[in-house]
Amino acid sequence: MTCAERAQLAMMLEVCAYPKPGNVDRCHDYDTTRLEHFLGSMIFSRNALDEAERLGASGSVGKIFHSAVEETHCHAGGNTHFGAFILLVPLVMGGDIPGALKVVAGTTVEDAVLFYRAFGLTRVAVLADDEMDINDPSAEESLRENRMTLYDVMAYSAPRDMVCREWLNGFALTRKGADLLHDYGPGSESISKAFLALLASEPDTFVAKKHGIEVSRRTMERAREVIDGVRDIREFDELCIREDINPGSTADIIIASIYTALGEGWEWDS
To answer: How many domains does the chain have?
Structure first.
């Protein structure tokens, strides 16, 4: 299996896993974003992922990332894998976590500019008071004037975004998720368990951007209650859906965890 194939498989396995509280899966959709939107994005990401694998560390992270977002911006389901590409592109370019760390350390200002252009194609949730304004025509000029590489952009966003934070902390949650998959064993049930364990350990920043940090923390506490046997996971799932709570950042990290675990021999089809 190539690295690009492994990345696509990881995206497919994540969205099909059930139950995965609050997120689109094989058993329920959202009004405007459905399972087939995620699967479509998975299919159309192949060219960019092949390019990432072919070029490796010599390629441009920003250019490949922009291609991945542009090529998957082909349906009415909105952003499906923006956060996942932040992790998958360097992972595929580097092959694994140590390789990805070398890739992200070598990013350039032009990578940052291309990332912002890709950001502008999406409807990704941001914190208006904290994030650099992607709609500001002077944003690219500011990046160049301040000589901000894409790594610098991730560092700027890291305090408020757990996916960006992975670039700085050595892909720590990605590593944790992969270890959980190995511990839980083969098969799709392990993905649901690993997702729940990560959700219980870290406030999901996508939830925080959409509903505020207190809702994110309460969601984390409810996930812990499921693990402790106090709350049923399907009841938790239904509650999240009713309250429009979808822990998308945790899902993005789980995709990277599945990619990593697959490369280490974790079996998905047993």
So the answer is: 1
Domain that holds residue 240: 3-16+32-263
Are 184 and 266 contacting, i.e. CB atoms less than 8 angstroms apart? no
Query: Tens digits of per-residue pLDDT, 59-100?
Result: 999 999 999 999 987 666 567 899 999 999 999 999 999 999
Rounded Cα distance, 50 and 38, in Å? 19
Domain containing 259 — which CATH number?
Answer: 1.10.4200.10
pLDDT tens for 44-59 read: 999 999 999 999 999 9
Note whether residue 7 is domain-resident: yes
